[in-house]
Structure formats: C-alpha cells, structure tokens
Amino acid sequence: MTELSPAIRLRSVSRHYVMGESVIHAVNEVSLVVPTGEFLALLGSSGSGKSTLLNLIAGLDRPSSGSVIAEGQDLSKMSSLELARYRRQTVGMVFQSFNLLPRMTLEENVELPLRLAEVDRSERAARVREALERVGLERRIGHRPSELSGGEQQRTAIARALVNRPKILLADEPTGNLDSATGESILALLREIQKNPGMTIIMVTHERALAERFADRLAVMGDGKLLSNGAPR
Amino acid sequence: MKFRDLSDLAFRNLREAVLRNSLTTLGVAVGVASLVAMLSLGVGLQQLASSRLAKSGLFDSIFVTPRTSLRRPGAGPPATRTPDAKARPLDADARAEISLLPNVIEVYPQIRFFTEVRYDGKPFATMVAGLPESSKASGAFDGMQGSFFSSPNADEAILQAELAKELNPQPSALIGKDLILRYAERQSLPAQPGDSAENSGGFSVIPKDKHLRIIGVVETEPASGFGGFPSGRLLIPLPLAETLRAAQVNDLRDILRDSSSDKPTYSSLTVRVQSPSLVEATEAKLKDLGFSAFSLLDASKSLRIFFSVFDLLLGIFGSLALAVATLGIINTLVMAILERRREIGVLKALGAADRDVKELFFVEAGVMGLFGGVLGTLLGWLIGRSLTLGTNLYLHRQNLPGVDISSVPWWLVLFGIGFAVLVSLAAGLYPASRAARLDPVQALRYE
C-alpha cells in the first residue's frame, strides 16, 4: 500500500570505516523500504550494524555509498545545515541511555528541541506540557532526571523526541537499560504513539520476544547485511 | 538558536562548572586590571603634566617689550634699533589696549627691582618681584610653607627659600615676622622753564621704607628666569608693587626717550591668553600694535606625542597578563568540550547545527570576557587609586603636595570591557570550532 510513498527508502546503503589498514563494513549494501505509519523493529546481535543503520536514517551519519531517502528527501545530498534541520523537524530520537541533560528539569529537557527549532516562547510551555502528558509525566515537570526511575527517564526522552512533532521516531535499544516490565510499558507507549496518523517508528533492539509482540515487522541484521526483511504482519 | 536561548544555555553551562569558570574569569579580570591600571597611569600622568604646564603659565603667556628695548648680550643686533615709526612706549595706554585684544585674559607688568631688605636690623640685598594674583594657581605655591597673599594689596611678602635661609636658618620661624623693604621711589619732576617738549619732565629718586609681614616661604618663583628676567627672591603682591612706584632699570632709558607723559611705563608686560593654541595669533597682533612679543612654543603638542608612545608601551606591558588569561580561556573551554562531549552529541542529535554549538561556546567565552572585563576595569581603577594613595603618602612625608597620578576616563572603562570581550571571543574561536566539528555518533558512543 505504502510502496508509493514510503517514509524511508534505503538503496544499497553502505557505511565503511577505515581502521588503520583494514576497512570495516558496518553497513553493507542494505536496501530497505519502511512504509509510512509502520512500526519496524531492527534486530541483530551487537556489532551487526543496526545502530549504524539507525544513525544513517537519523541523519547523524552519512553513508559511504547508496542513498537514504526519508520523507522524500535524499539525506546523502543534504548539507550539514539541512541535516540539522531534518533532525529537528522530521525525526525524533530515543537512546538506550536516555541522554537527558542531568542539570535540567524535565520541562527544560523537553523544551530543548523547541529552543533549537526557534519555536516561539509563548508556545513552548503548552507544547512541553502536552508532550509530557502524552507520556504520563506531567506531574513530574519540575523534577530532575536523577529523581526519576529508568522508565520515567525513558518516557521523558520519548516526550523530548515527540515535542517537535516529527514524522519518524527512531529508538536505539529503548528498553536496553530497563527491567522487562518497564520495557514492556515503554513499548506499549511507542505502540500508542504509532497510532498517530503518519507516525513511523523504527526501533533497534535485540529483544526478539518484545519486538514480535509490539512491532509491525521485524528486520534482522548480521555483519552489516540485512539478513531478513520480514513481512508486514 | 535565538540569542536569548543561546545565552540562557551559556549561563547555565557556566554555572555548572562555577569554580573553574570563576577562576578563568578572574584570570581575565587580572589581565584587564593590569592593562587598565597601566593605561590609567599613562592618562593620569599626562593629565598631571598637561595641567601643570597649563598652570605654570609658561605656555599661555606672551612677553611684550617695547620695540626699542636694550640690546641684550649675545642677542644680536635687533632689527628695531633704528628708529621705527611704529615703535611706541609700553605704558598704561598700551596696557589697556592690549587687555582689550580678543582672548586676552590678563595683562600685567613685570615689576622687578634690586634693592635692600632689613630684617632683624641687618641688611640683605635682594631682587623684589611683584606677583599677579593669578600666579596663585600656577602650582608653585602648592607645597609652600605659610600661605599666599591675603589680598592683592596686602603689605605681605613671600620669601624664596634661599633668601629665607639667609634671614634665618629655620625658615618656618620667619612666618608672621616683619621686615623692612628699602627702595627708591620715583617721583616725577615738573618741567623746568626752557626745557624743550622732548626733554620735559624727569624724576627724582627718594629712598623709602615699607614694612612687610612675611607670610610664606616658597621654593621658587613661578615661571622664574623666563624672558631673561632675574628671578625674584622677595615676592610681593603685584598691585602693591605698582603703588610703590619703585625706580626700575627702564626708568633711566625712558626719561631719555619719550617721557612727556606722567603715565607709568613698563619694561615689559606679560599677556596671558585663554589657551596655548591662541598664543601665536595673539603674538602676531601684538607685533602689529608695535611691540616686541615673545612666547614659548606650545609644548603640549610634543607632550601628546611623548605620552602616546608612553601609553603604547604601558599598554603592551599591561596586555601581557591578558595574553596569559587568553590561554586560560582556551584551556577552560577545551576542558569543557571534553566534559560535555556527550551533551554536544545530544544537542546535535536533537537538531543543533554546527553553528548553534559554535555560538554556544562563543557566548560562553564572551560572557567570561564581559564579567572579567567589568571586574578587571574595577580592579584596575582600584590599583590606580592605590598607587595614587601610596604616592601621596610618600609625597606627604616629603612635605610635598599630593597629586593624582592615575585617571580612568569613560573611554578607558569602555575600552577595558570591550577589549576583554574581544580577546575572549578570539580565545573562544578554536574551542568553539572544535566543539562544532564534534562527530555526534562518536560523542554519543563515548562513555
């Protein structure tokens, strides 16, 4: 259905690193299409290249060859300024270690992308509150990350990723630092968010069982290659 | 990112490592303080020298003599020795005329005569000079013992220190004592029958005594020895000197020349103008009136050149500490990059452009510069004040008047702060671009 207007299309994407005299093929000739509105789980053991692939889709890294097309834009042809705008407006990122700024309150952490996007100050408070309500943390708005549990911190990170209303949410091992019950609740939250029309989610994980329960499709990577593309459930 | 958000984040970051950033800012402050203190000394000394020169009256004064003045030894043949139609006597009329010239603030005669004073029954030969009221402001009397004349016509005398020592080895003991001035009063004689118009008049010389109270002792007469006059050792108020009508050197010459009038003539007049820059034009006007005029060159010009070089040297020495402080800023910001690697990575992942990161570090450097500049300028002013205080303490012990050797004008305040900000921004250039170039993937992987 979405083959005509996919959220993400990867064409023979490779990312090589030169380490001394050897070349490491972190991502090797990967082609993948992610339709708009899909929740894709990217599985693989560590070192399989799944995080590198996610960074390429996030516009944090550039492919050595091939093209990454997200929401109709070819990332490999963008300037670094255009890539920054893409990261601000089109994608939201969630990390395994939350990456909240410890000296800022939840409100300030979630506000950070709004500052970068130069959203009007008058609008910001409402947008922050809305994002925190969505993850159920509106009552912890003045707390610092260190005062929260791991699950709450990850929810905050999700609120921060959503506050600029992106079309694509990228999650790199979002449950990696959480116990299984909390991990499940986070995935349930992602699933909930995915219900928003047009929201595409790509999640890197190595927890197959969870991925099977919550994702629409599983793609498996090994040694930089896409081993299985899966099929839409 | 908008500037307000940028500075918000910058302040937050600076507060985070408050000790290190405060020490860096203090480093900048010390650098700026040394620069401001040095320049404030330069400015202060220049102002001091300029005001002293202005107060001395040497550079805003013109000395006027009649054209047919006596030839001074070694002066060469004056061009005016031959009778000159324009030559005219330097008398009361001339004095009144000169005082009406534009920009002239004061015209007074040089009254000097060699005579004898009696103190404690003993005679002392000395040169008496009349002092105009304006010489009080010349600075020469700032550290005097006793006081200046109580009024322009007071029967009072100020002794030059050497004469005072001759009178009494303890000069301060002289103050309040009386002395007798013996002088020759000039009295005009009525014209004798048979005298031609040219040879009318003449005068007789009558010895007179004048009791004077010693009210002060001063090191030197202001502007003494200038204009070829012997310096006075007994100083009396000029109006008093004029009323004495003491016979002077030029009287004999005047009687042989044109003394048909009874008006007093002067061997010379001192003309003071509003500022040294007006001396040249006024001097030309005086020559047009038929007098000889003489002035010192405007020394303030060469003074300004000297102090420009002096300020430059002081500025270079003062900047050395600021150069060291610059290294401190670079070090602090490079350390901050290492510490905030992950944070920079997060910012970039959230959509910060390289420019945003660069500007953030720039603003942090600028803020340190601004605070350092303000603190340093204040500190520099304090150092200048302490130097002035110390100098005045020393001068006070030497019985000399206090002076203000440092000055922090507004332009120096602005310069100090502006320079600190500029130097800090320059110091932030390398760390800022290094932070901007940081690879977010590497930064986020870094633990």
Structural summary, described in words:
The complex is a heterodimer of chains A (233) and B (447). Chain A is built from seven helices and ten strands. Chain A is α/β, with parallel strands linked by helices and 233 residues long. In chain A, strand 9 (217-222) and strand 10 form a beta hairpin. The model of chain A has no long low-confidence stretch (mean pLDDT 91). Chain B folds into three domains: 3-54 and 302-445, no CATH class; 60-108 and 268-294, Alpha-Beta Plaits; 111-265, no CATH class. In chain B, the strands form two sheets. A six-stranded mixed beta barrel of chain B has the order 3-4-9-6-8-7. A four-stranded antiparallel beta sheet of chain B has the order 2-10-1-11, covered by helices on one side. Chain B starts with a helix and ends with a helix. The A-B interface holds A 55, 58, 60-61, 80-81, 84-85, 87-89, 93, 95, 99, 101, 103-104, 112-113, 115-118, 160, 164 and B 1-2, 5, 8-9, 12, 16, 342-343, 345-356, 440-441, 444.
Unreliable segments of 5+ consecutive residues of chain B: 69-76, 78-85
Order of helices and strands of chain A: EEEHEEHEHHHEHEHEE
Class derived from helix and strand content of chain B: alpha+beta
Relative strand content of chain A: 25-35%
Q: Assign the CATH architecture of the largest domain in chain A.
A: 3-Layer(aba) Sandwich
Number of helices of chain B: 12
- Provide the β-strand percentage band of chain B: 15-25%
- Inertia-based shape of chain B: elongated
Structural class by secondary-structure content of chain A: alpha/beta
Which chain pair shows the most residues in contact? A-B, 25 and 24 residues
Report the mean per-residue pLDDT of chain A as an integer.
Answer: 91
Strand order of the largest sheet of chain B: 3-4-9-6-8-7
The DSSP helix count of chain A reads: 7
**CATH class category of the largest domain in chain A:** Alpha Beta
Largest sheet of chain B: 6 strands, mixed, barrel
CATH H-level name of the largest domain in chain A... which superfamily?
Answer: P-loop containing nucleotide triphosphate hydrolases
